[in-house]
Amino acid sequence: MLNPNVPALALAPMDGVTDPAMRALQGESGVFSYAVSEFLRVSSDPLPIKVFRRDVPELDHAAKTPSGMPVHVQLLGGDPERMARSAQAAMRAGATVIDINFGCPAPTVNRNDGGATLLKFPCRIREVVQAVRQSLPSTIPVSAKLRLGWDSVEAIYENAEMAAAGGASWITIHARTRSQGYQPPVFWRPIGQVREKIGIPVVANGDIWTLDDFRRCREETGCAHFMLGRCALADPNLPKLVAHELGIGMPHVPASIDWAAELARLLDWMRYYGQGAGPGAAQRLKQWLKLAASRGVFQHFDQVKLADSAEELLALLRGAAPLLR
Q1: 52/152 same-domain check
Q2: From CA 317, how far away is CA 258, in angstroms rounded?
Q3: How many domains does the chain have?
């Protein structure tokens, strides 16, 4: 359960990015209060237990990463009964918290009655949350992740109320509409207005790229709980700085980022989870570096992007250190 009086920092779910290997790596920092899994899509049939154990292997270990960071299971879908039955299967697989995705902006997801498309139908948000909530024992919290609306910021007020009315223990709000995708600007102030009215904890999310961004977000929202996604990977030091500001840790923040060590550790976890072989491994490491390069945190992506293997990429990084830090 998210304690309204205790600050928390969450690792956001990012499809194809925050998989078990990345969650394991991020958990090692000790600064995240919890992570949310990539969404598991509930379409024509409820999901079976084996899918949860395959995609969220932490469920076999008390729903925690090897370092002990809790992992919440996220479901995506629009049919209340199928979502409820899937939530029950997740619980039987070992889930300790169920999160419901009402924020994914992907067109394919939205065309198939999932993610942000439900923001256009507030009553359906309540129905889905309520069905999931009523299908589980009270010891399993249910949360919901929303955007501000489909194409209107004002939609968040009713949608948030519907999620709370359905029984959500807390909600996370991404400070954009679906129409914006990931384009600026973000609107943090409505998150604060929802927090003041809704009566349950609110987690603020969206465009916290720097410590100054975090401070502005906290000032505008009044929130004690925050979720970091792309920004946490673009700058691995940022979660440590934010956690320190929140008073939930005083970790050592290195003056520079040792990208070779970071990526080597991710590769270790990929191998642990059976993902570390073949050209896909190199692409996964490049995915991370490209994101960091897009924010100016990693300056030498052109020098490593043509590496054919993960081993070659790491050798390039190590051979050029500290130039490539």
Answers
A1: yes
A2: 9
A3: 2
Q: Residues 203, 311: one domain?
A: no
Active-site option among 104, 217, 223, 231: 104
131 and 240: one domain?
A: yes
φ, ψ at 288 (rounded to 5°): -65, -45
Measured distance CA(303)–CA(27) in Å, rounded: 29
Please give the Cα distance from 207 to 213 (Å, whole number).
7
Interatomic CA distance for residues 114 and 79, integer angstroms: 9
Residues in the chain: 325
123 is catalytic: no
pLDDT at 24 over 80: yes
Buried b (16+ CB within 10 A) or exposed e, 101-115: bbbbbbeebbebebb
Could you list the residue range(s) of the whole structural domain that residue 289 is in?
259-320
Element (H, E) at 72: strand 71-76
Q: Can you give the CATH number for the domain in which 152 is found?
A: 3.20.20.70
pTM: 0.95
pLDDT digits 0-9 by tens, 140-194: 999 999 999 999 999 999 999 999 999 999 999 999 999 998 999 999 999 999 9
Structure token digits, residue 213: 């961004």
| Contact criterion met (CB below 8 Å) for 313 and 285 | yes
Task: State the average pLDDT for the chain.
Answer: 94
Same domain, 179 and 302: no
What pLDDT is recorded for position 251?
66
